[in-house]
Prior knowledge:
- The protein is built from eleven helices and 14 strands.
- It is an alpha/beta fold.
- The chain folds into two domains: 5-126 and 288-305, NAD(P)-binding Rossmann-like Domain (Rossmann fold, 3-Layer(aba) Sandwich); 131-283, Dihydrodipicolinate Reductase, domain 2 (2-Layer Sandwich).
- Helix 4 runs parallel beside helix 5, helix 5 runs antiparallel to helix 11 (310-328) and helix 9 crosses helix 11.
Amino acid sequence: MLKRIKWGIIGCGNVTEVKSGPAFNKVEGSSLHMAMRRDGEKAKSYANRHKIPHWSNQAEDVINNPDINAIYIATPPGSHAEYAIRCMEAGKPVYVEKPMAANAAQAEQMLAVSRSTRVPLFIAYYRRTLPGFLKVKELIDTGVIGQTLYVNMRLIRPAKSYEKDALHNIWRLQAELSGGGIFFDLASHQLDFLDYVFGPVKNAFGVAANRGGYYDVEDTVSASMQFESGVVGNGIWSFVSNEHTEEDTIEVVGTKGRIVFSAFAHTPISLHTDAGHLEFPYLNPENIQYNLIKQVVESLQGIGSCVSTGETAIRTNRVMQKIVQDFYQK
């Protein structure tokens, strides 16, 4: 077990500025030692802003640094497997951004190396640790809405101006880098949280299409699934819709009521039962990944455990791949 975790970051883009990066220095027994980005000037700027003592434009400098004993990988998903495997083979635990990898095969490789080397692999599905989402899980687990029957997801929004312009070269819209379209980036959070609440999905199928024509990957997805617990679910995702249809809703329906909450807007959680209507706030930490990073650190220190690992996260990669597989087999 490690007493003090000295982190290196491979890839320090926007997601690390507030959501995650600062949290590594806030957790007791944890600190950031080196930041890496291929653009050296940006790596240096990041290190200066976040008071990180070292920076580099080479991943090898992070992986081979003897003072670094854990590594945060925050590159696009297409390179997660390569970097994570190199880190684990060097004996260094990894905390990897979500989704776990660009596809299930890459995720399987990561998990296989973690198992063979016995080096821990954690994935940044932080909704498993946020107070609002834990309140949803508590309401379901304690039977407030009775026996859960089904869950319905709707994530609908218009295309953003920069998504319509191919000149922006957005990695989230390049299947080799992201796994697919925006569905892979956003739906992974929803599907992982439902896996946490209802257990693994035992059967899933879906259809995906490109209806907007702005890019090559899917922009509209419909899916149905059943969890091992018996709960059935469905979802619709559209990222080229009209602004008047915009919606971010997950609805869980049981025999005694229903819970309605958002995956990304973090509006108050709404509980409806025969007793009336109640609302609960989300109460997110300043750095939204803080709670999960704290779990990762404590797990590495041997004083706690983490709810999001390669073993749990790989299931979401498998489900997403089943949902869109026909689109990519054309």
